Design the sequence.
């Protein structure tokens, strides 16, 4: 399995009424060992997701369950486990 960092920005402002559902899906991805962590900038203008998958395409497909997915623009970096 590989780890990927998905840096994202918004293509539109997220709807605050959907935030709870977004959080629930993130918790599910973490529980299912498909996501390691999610970080948001303090001003919530951008964020970073650490995903686990066989490929970048698989990791991106796993993110498609997020309600905010349609308004997220991603830049992806394959991560190296430098320190076991």
Sequence:
């Amino acid at each position: 399995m590989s780890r990927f960092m998905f840096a994202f920005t918004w293509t539109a402002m997220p709807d605050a009424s959907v935030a709870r559902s977004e959080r629930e899906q993130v918790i599910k991805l973490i529980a299912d060992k498909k996501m390691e962590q999610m970080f948001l900038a303090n001003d919530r203008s951008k964020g970073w997701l650490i995903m686990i998958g066989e490929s970048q395409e698989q990791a991106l497909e796993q993110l498609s369950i997020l309600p905010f997915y349609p308004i997220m623009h991603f830049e992806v970096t394959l991560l190296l486990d430098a320190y076991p």
